[in-house]
């Protein structure tokens, strides 16, 4: 009896090797979309044209804005948890904290310089030189408050690093945590500048000014108390965070007044 045999399926030809494109940045042959050596998008790197620019500008702005808004929103909503997750490695959707602080400090200073804000009443004609210098020092500090805060980031980080040792974060991680907090606080202060301009010269100016000035220390206190509570009980988290922020702001006030007086004195001469 004849045995029926099924014809074996035809052998498939080996898949053709994926076409490789040279990376225009480093020269590496790349079969996929992104270069494994430098990370450049190989398939979408082409000659720059006007059409390319018009397409790229809104695309780039959207990605930057999305990262900024996400980082600020999450930090304002749940600061302790956001810092903890960021330091644990959840960073893809966030804007870089130090870059965020620098960007918002610049925006704050530009708005303060551009808008007509009367910080103090016009000095009387017979004001002493010392009173005049104090007024000018206050104006300088107000204009460059964002940058003065940035300069003090290491001091704030040193304070929480020294007093919140159970968190086991290194100094660079404390610096990053303060940058996240300061970035969110600066975003609120940027929004307060138009309010200050609108209240300028009226009785409402001082309340708005003091509320805006207290945003950063109050938010720092909240954020680091939340961050510390898994490692410390709430009373200990409160006093340790509070002491670190208080010492930081005493030093910040001294630094602020010294720099402002030196700057005003230098320009006066």
From TrEMBL:
Keyword Transport carried by entry = no
Origin superkingdom = Bacteria
Pfam families from the xrefs? DUF3667 (PF12412)
Transmembrane annotation, as ranges: 98-121, 141-163, 175-196, 208-225, 237-255
Where would I find the C2H2-type domain in this sequence?
A: 35-55
Q: Which UniProt keywords apply?
A: Membrane, Transmembrane, Transmembrane helix
Q: Which InterPro entries match?
A: DUF3667, Znf_C2H2_type
Q: Does the keyword Acetylation feature in the UniProt annotation?
A: no
| Name the UniProt record assigns to this protein | DUF3667 domain-containing protein
Naturally occurring in which organism (per UniProt): Hymenobacter gummosus
